[in-house]
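Posted in: Structural Biology > Protein-Ligand Complexes

Title: Requesting predicted complex, zinc ion in pocket

I'd be grateful if someone could produce the 3D structure tokens for the following input. Sequence and ligand are given below.
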Amino acid sequence: MAELVFFSGTMDCGKSTLALQMDHNHRARGRTGLVLTKHDRAGEAVISSRLGLSREATEVGDDLDLWDLVVEQATHGRAVQYLICDEAQFYTPQQVEQLARIVDEMDIDVYAFGITADFRTELFPGSRRLIELADRTQVPQVEALCWCGRRATHNARVVDGHMVVEGEQVVVGDTAGAPAGQVEYEVLCRRHYMRRMTAHAARAQAGSPDLLPFDLDLCPLPGPASHG
Ligand SMILES: [Zn+2]
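-- Reply #1 --
Done. Output follows.
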């Protein structure tokens, strides 16, 4: 029985790496599939991972009908046994419904990978529909970490060094630094997201003479040295 599986998490938890590995594993067993993405950080029609891997992929435009795409492959004699769908948070809800139909009516496995929530902590429409429809939702085993060492659960948007909580839902950027004036992202634990305490802000406060002791000591590193 084919399945629709949604691998969801924050940025930086290795979803694109996992997507590429999944494609490799299936191809190594002689299966043929389609690899799709939308707004990858490296540009159009490519899946890139922060570990340096990349491969070409079909870019999913808003108007692309994924059901038609798979039917067209079959019409040309190209077997499709699975789909890898990276950056699935950016797919439209209709495209997610097309994926579910592909699983149910064509018996094709669909593995979707995406960020659950945006920089305002709100679900992306594509992710919401995937959570609603998927046979399974899985969290990748590798955890992204906040600067404090806790598990990162939120994506913060940073513009010119300052965390922002308002703006367009989709502005493509990376977590690895951006030129001045451009959007970048940082993964944070909820506590530091709520306090808008990015790594940069924490460093600035640590060096500030009017620092109050409770400002920095709210989030000790987990482990034996911690006092809770
Ligand atoms: Zn933190």
